[in-house]
Amino acid sequence: MIDARYLHRPELAQTLLDAAFNRVGSKGEVAELLKLSRRSLQMIYRHERGMTYGVQVQLEAIIRGDPYRSPFDQSRGPSLVTRAIEAAGPGNEEDLAARLDVTPRYLGMLATGARKMSYGLQCLLEKLLAEHEANERSSEETLSAPAEPK
């Protein structure tokens, strides 16, 4: 189950950055891929600045050798949130908000476009929707499978 409260691990900043430096070859290239200044990267490394979930996701992609999961696009926020709310089902907005580590009010503001989403939240929403779609496919396959004779 995708849950931001368990996925965001800012205490792993140094470990993730060291692995990314080794993978890419230089701190400057990692900073460029993350679209951060070298100073900001240094502050994250020294724990003088917190590592956001978006930076964590990008570092994990760099370490795996993947390109970015998907480009950051704030304009997709309202549609991603609306789809996630629909997937969660009626009355489950509070649970969805908790899984995203936001308040239900903030979730509603994202859905209407009154607030802009972060890259980390975009990644979480994409993961949640992918998880939901995989569960739906699995359910459909189970229902369409022929019944075993008794």
What does this structure look like?
The chain is mainly alpha-helical and 150 residues long. The protein has two domains: 4-64, Orthogonal Bundle (434 Repressor (Amino-terminal Domain)); 74-142. Helices cover 66% and strands 0% of the residues. The chain is built from nine helices and no strands. The longest helix has 26 residues, at 119-144. It starts with a helix and ends in a 6-residue tail after the last helix. The mean pLDDT is 84.
Indicate the topology.
Layout: H1 4-7, H2 13-24, H3 27-34, H4 38-45, H5 53-64, H6 77-88, H7 93-100, H8 104-112, H9 119-144
Helix pairs in contact: 2-5, 5-9, 6-8, 6-9
Quick synopsis:
The protein is mainly alpha-helical. Helix content is 66%, strand content 0%. It is globular.
Any idea what the radius of gyration is? 18 Å
Q: What is the number of beta strands?
A: 0
Largest sheet: none
Q: Residue share in helices? A: 55-70%
Helices and strands, in order, run as HHHHHHHHH
Unreliable stretches: none
Molecular shape: globular
State the separation between the terminal residues, measured CA to CA.
34 Å
Helical segment count: 9
Structural class: mainly alpha
Beta fraction: under 5%
**Average pLDDT rating:** 84
Tell me the count of domains: 2
Please supply descriptive tags for the structure shown above.
66% helix, 434 Repressor (Amino-terminal Domain), 2 domains, 0% strand, 150 residues, globular, mainly alpha
